[in-house]
Amino acid sequence: MAITEHRTSSGRHSTFYRACGPQDGPVVIMTHGWPELSISWRHQLAYLGSLGYRAIAPDMRGYGASTVYDTKEAYALAEMVQDMVELIDSLGVEKAVWIGHDWGSPVAWSVALQHPERVAAVASLCVPYGFAGQPAQMEHSINRELYPADEYPLGQWDYQMYYYENFDAAQREMEENPEALIKALFRKGDPNGVGVPSGSASIRKNGGWFTALGGVPDLPLDEDVVSAEDIATYAKHLKENGFFGPNAWYVNGAANTAYLQTKADPTLSMPVLFVHATYDYVCDTTTTAFAEPMRQVCPNLTEARLHSGHWMAQEKPQELNAILASWLHGSAAYPA
C-alpha cells in the first residue's frame, strides 16, 4: 500500500507528514524522536495502513520538511503538543491512537495528559510516561551497580547534561558528517552490552560525543535496521536543517516539567501500551525502576517486550507490528 506525502499549516506552524491507509480509517498518529524523521515509522505506516487504519507519521518540528525554529524555547513540549493538536484538527477527527518513540514518546504522553479527549489510546516504545528531559531527576532510572554515583553522577543520562553545558559544541560535531553519524547511530541491539556502562555516561568526561575517536566514526551500514536509501534521506534533511532544532529538544527540562505539572492528576485512564527494549541501555527499563512510576498512574496498562535496541520500529518491525495490532484490536478496542 502506498505511503503518501501531505502538509498541514496554520498561522503558527507547518507540519509535513506521511500517511497510509484509507482516508476514512481510524487514525493512528506516530511521533518520532531524535534525530529521526517520519520515515522511521515506514514499516508501521505500511502495515497499519494495510489493516485499514489511517496511519499518520509527521516530521516533528525542527526535522525534515516541517518548520524549523532558531530559538531553544521553540522546542518545548508545550509547542510540540500544540503542533499535534493542529495536526489532528486538520484531519477532521476527534480522536486518534498516539504512538511515540524516543522524544516522540513525551509528545504522545503529553497529548494524552493535556488533551485526553483527543486520545483513544496511547502507546510508547522505550520511553516510559513521565520523562521530561531533566537528567538530574532520573535517579530511579539508573542502575547504581553499573553506574556508581561517585563516578557517574547522572548515570547513562550524562549525555543530556552535555547539551545544557556545551550546546554549540555538540551541534558542531554532529554537523560535521551527518551521514556518518546516522550510520553510527542506527544499529541493532547488542546483547554484549548487558552489564557494560553505556558510552552515553561519559560524554562530558570525554569532552564530547566523538572527541576521543577523532570525529564521527565511519562505520559500515547496518542493513538489519536501515537501507542506504534510508540513510540518504535522514542525512539530506539533517544537512539542510542542521542539529540546532533536534538538539534543542533536550534543553527544555524545566519548562517541560512545569508544563506536565499543570495537571494535578497525572493519571492516564485510557488504554496504554508500553514496549520495553531489552538492549536499550540508555532507556533502561530492564534493570532499573524507570517504568515503575508509569505503572502507578496508568490503570489500563499493557506491557510488551522486544529483544531489540533503541530503534525497535526499524530493527524489529514485524514483531512490533504484531504487538501493535494485538493491542489495537484487543485492550485498546480500536479495530480498523
Structure description:
By secondary structure, the chain is of the alpha/beta class. The protein has a single domain, classed as Rossmann fold (3-Layer(aba) Sandwich). Helices cover 33% and strands 14% of the residues. The chain contains 12 helices and 8 strands. Strands 1-2-4-3-5-6-7-8 form an 8-stranded mixed β-sheet, sandwiched between helices. Helix 1 links the parallel strand 3 (27-31) and strand 4. Helix 1 packs parallel to helix 12 (317-329) and helix 6 (178-185) crosses helix 7 (228-241). The two termini are 16 Å apart. The mean pLDDT is 97.
Present the secondary structure layout:
Elements: E1 4-9, E2 14-20, E3 27-31, H1 42-51, E4 54-58, H2 77-91, E5 96-101, H3 104-114, E6 119-125, H4 158-165, H5 167-175, H6 178-185, H7 228-241, H8 244-248, H9 253-260, E7 272-277, H10 292-297, E8 301-306, H11 312-315, H12 317-329
Parallel strand pairs: 3-4, 3-5, 5-6, 6-7, 7-8
Antiparallel strand pairs: 1-2, 2-4
